[in-house]
């Protein structure tokens, strides 16, 4: 099959416009994750590695923006941070506060004790804490990689900082658990991190019907595909659907929206149940 170059270009343009159009379907734009960076006494490598992995898993599907606290920039340059985090999309705290309504998820990859304490004391004089409190009060999703504030995590033993008294460790852990009660999802490892952000990726992916998806159904022998209301069908997907004589209909009306020129022949065929569209 010859794929039309102009159709491919149109698909790319449509996808970009689709995400930027504020009047388009709710949740259709890429989910924006604001990663608020704090400095940690035990270093930032562990949390930045988790952020790098998150970008590796889902960077093509969600937009990860890094927002460093000044204490971070006092110790590491932007170049160093970009290399360690694997993300070069940065935003200042001032701009982040101004654009907070457009953030879908607030994430703390490095959680120091000071941030835990400030949140529990509602210290809204500190701008990143004010952002997080706003996010919690407005019902936004807020999560944190908890290793930096968990005295029982292996990173503390590796640094030789696991020799505090049982009471000290107990109090630290209790503060962390209290923070979870505020509505912050505490993530302990890679598996939890990956599974927690996966729904946002799947939600975004299911907004657009692509040529690859149509070809998968064609290979499976499907000739009638059912899609949800408001889903975008790319020009290249339309071309592929017509080439394979595939009908696409909406869930409610089940009226064909692709391949109308084949409708007469299709109506004569033996009816078959529509396939649920799954990207």
Task: Write a structural description.
With 279 residues, this protein is of the alpha/beta class. Helix content is 46%, strand content 15%. The chain has a five-stranded parallel β-sheet, with helices on both faces. Strand 1 (32-37), helix 2 (45-58) and strand 2 (63-68) form a beta-alpha-beta unit. The longest helix is centred in the N-terminal third of the chain and has 16 residues, at 5-20. The chain is elongated, with a radius of gyration of 24 Å. 29% of the residues are buried.
Keywords:
single chain, 279 residues, alpha/beta, five-stranded parallel sheet, four-stranded mixed sheet, 46% helix, 15% strand, elongated, disordered C terminus
List strands and helices in order, with pairings:
Layout: H1 5-20, E1 32-37, H2 45-58, E2 63-68, H3 70-73, H4 78-85, H5 93-98, E3 105-108, H6 113-120, H7 127-137, E4 141-145, H8 154-158, H9 166-181, E5 185-187, H10 190-205, E6 208-209, H11 211-219, E7 224-227, E8 232-233, H12 235-243, E9 247-250, E10 256-258, H13 263-268, E11 275-276
Parallel strand pairs: 1-2, 1-3, 3-4, 4-5, 6-8, 7-9, 7-11
Antiparallel strand pairs: 9-10
